[in-house]
Amino acid sequence: MNISKKLMLIVILTTVEVSITVFSAFEIAKGAKFHQLNFLHLKYINQLSKSINEIEIDKSIDTKTIESNILAIKQQPIDCLEEINILNKVIMEIINTNQALTICEKDIEVADTALSSLKQYENRAIDRHTFLTSLNHALYNFNEHSENFEEPIRKTVSFILITLIPLVLIISLFNILFISYLSRTISNSIHNLTLLLSSKPKDNINLDEDLEKNTTGELKALIIAARQRIREDFFNLENNKELQAIVKTQTASLQQANDELAQFAYRASHDLKSPLSGAKSLAQFVILDIEAGDTKEAINNAKIIYQQMEKLETLVVDILLLAKADISSEDITPIDFDQLIIDMKERLAWLMKDNPCTLETNITLSKPITSDKARFAQIIENVISNGLKYYDKTKPSPYVKCDIFDKSDILTIIVSDNGIGIPEQHQDEVFDMFKRFHVKNSTGSGLGMALVKKHIEFLKGDISFESSKDGTIFTITIPMDKQV
Ligand SMILES: Nc1ncnc2c1ncn2[C@@H]1O[C@H](COP(=O)(O)OP(=O)(O)OP(=O)(O)O)[C@@H](O)[C@H]1O
Ligand SMILES: [Mg+2]
């Protein structure tokens, strides 16, 4: 039985105990009232007896006094019957004292008979002698009833005293014992629990098991709920820590992106500015040349302006490509790598013309590759164009080779050359924007490898390279199962 049920039992027992006590007190008080009524009854009987005596010693009959005497005598049994309720009747039935009720009823009947004789005498229906006889008969019955009434009432009151009061005492005793047992159980449980919870953590490895063994009922439920709540709060705290860590790393990467963007804006505007200012000054020379009539020099300067503008256009196109690299494309189609190489060669015609470098491509694919064609085109073109640009003029047969093949859902692109190589001290800057290490050898924006890196990251692939004075090998791997 849990604590709340035990407490409920105590409440019920106490209510029963109080109800019985109150009931007993009322019943004992009622017994006293019945004695009082009987005493009053005897007083009025005595008055009636005196009136009868006066009539007998030949005084005239005062019917009004006699009537009021009889009515007064009749009132006590009426009061008595009104006082008795159903429960009293049941008890009197059980202990066989219900003759008290019969006595009351008979007393009322006797009083009614006496009153009707009085009326008959007043109407001269009976004579004085008959009237006196009936009065004496009533007086006798009243007296007898009064005598017989005391015994059942006394018996009823003593029954209540003998049975209900010991019952109240027994319930009270049981209640006291039960309450002390309950308070001892609760205080013991609390004491054990306090010891258990205040024990050192090293002795507390099996706290759940100990709780299971040493506690029961509501206390056990309370501790289990509290432990669960603490665990959840702790978990939330840990989660908050995790969130804080995520926010910290993301803020750091945002900061880095912001720095890169600022650097990019600076470098881009710087690189855009130089061909523009060059072209501006040359345009002024062209005007002066034309004014001086020197058309030959004017044409030369205009040609330089044209070259500067071409450079500018390339730079703007490269910057645009780089900016677009982070935006996902919706043009996902099966890629025809042979056609991709043909198109690339067309675009690189300016670089391949008069270039002693040979370009060899090998494409071996087990299944069609479906992905963002433009990204693949830009990756391959940039890496191959670098091989062609930075070839070694001192080597007899410069070459660039490109192998494209797949294995276990991984597409591999290997571009190798026997060019001048990337200086060792700059190898970790190859993918940075605007970094160029062979300015004299060829033109460029220094954005090609940064663009390649962005595309590969977008495709969840990887790029690495090995470079020395003998040449450079770029290896690109792209997992095809991770493509959208
Ligand atoms: N295969 C290579 N051999 C030797 N050097 C290389 C090779 N690839 C890249 N580099 C070096 O790395 C630098 C950066 O390459 P990246 O492609 O980013 O720029 P770029 O080719 O100079 O210009 P862009 O590609 O924008 O026209 C190059 O300028 C070059 O110095
Ligand atoms: Mg390049």
Overall description:
With about 475 residues, this protein is an alpha+beta fold. It has 3 domains: about 5-190; about 215-325, Helix Hairpins (Orthogonal Bundle), CATH 1.10.287; about 330-480, Histidine kinase-like ATPase, C-terminal domain (Heat Shock Protein 90). The chain has 12 helices and 7 strands. It has helices at about 5-55, 65-85, 85-95, 100-120, 130-200, 205-215, 215-290, 295-325, 335-345, 350, 375-390, 450-460, and strands at about 330-335, 360-365, 370, 400-405, 410-415, 460-470, 470-480. The strands form 2 sheets. The chain has a 5-stranded mixed β-sheet with strand order 2-4-5-7-6, covered by helices on one side. Helix 1 (about 5-55) packs antiparallel against helix 2 (about 65-85), helix 1 (about 5-55) packs antiparallel against helix 5 and helix 11 (about 375-390) packs antiparallel against helix 12. The longest helix has about 80 residues, at about 215-290. The protein is rod-shaped. The two termini are about 65 Å apart. The model has no long low-confidence stretch (mean pLDDT about 90). Magnesium ion binds next to helix 11. It catalyses: ATP + protein L-histidine = ADP + protein N-phospho-L-histidine. It holds the Pfam family HisKA. InterPro entries: HATPase_C_sf, HATPase_dom, His_kinase_dom, HisK_dim/P_dom, HisK_dim/P_sf, Sensor_HK_Regulatory, Sig_transdc_His_kin-like_C. Keywords: Kinase, Membrane, Phosphoprotein, Transferase, Transmembrane, Transmembrane helix, Two-component regulatory system. This is histidine kinase.
